[in-house]
Design goal:
By secondary structure, the protein is of the alpha+beta class. It has three helices and four strands, in the order H-H-H-E-E-E-E. A two-stranded antiparallel sheet has the order 1-2. Strands 3-4 form a two-stranded antiparallel ribbon.
Length: about 120
């Protein structure tokens, strides 16, 4: 095991061009290395599954109160103007913050429409 670890370290981190010489097939992979590699693969799959499960739970909690509205072409909608996106239109805090009704021309994406 020690010899294969040394050879693997030399093979992975070459110090000189001589270290890049090919290693004989007999000393490249041993049974213990294959077992260790399989254990690492199983560990990575296990951790990946838990990360995906946690991300799904985070997404479900974040989108709990989210409304999905599906507008079709020719629907009339009101447009809410945000102060950060349209700073030139805001005179004071009592200004009208929405305009409309506008007609939906086409659907651009899942959450975007062209008015």
């Amino acid at each position: 095991m020690l010899l294969s670890t040394l050879l693997l370290n030399v093979y992975m981190d070459p110090l000189t061009p001589l270290d890049l010489l090919s290693i004989p097939l007999e000393s490249r992979v041993t049974y213990e290395d294959e077992v260790r590699a399989n254990e690492m693969k199983r560990t990575h799959e296990y951790v990946r599954g838990h990360i995906e499960k946690a991300n799904a739970a985070y997404k479900a909690r974040a989108n709990k109160h989210l409304k999905y509205l599906d507008f079709k072409p020719r629907d009339l909608v009101w447009l809410h103007l945000m102060k950060e996106r349209f700073p030139s239109r805001w005179k004071n805090k009592l200004s009208v913050s929405s305009n409309g009704p506008f007609q939906v021309i086409e659907k651009v994406g899942d959450n975007a429409d062209k008015l």
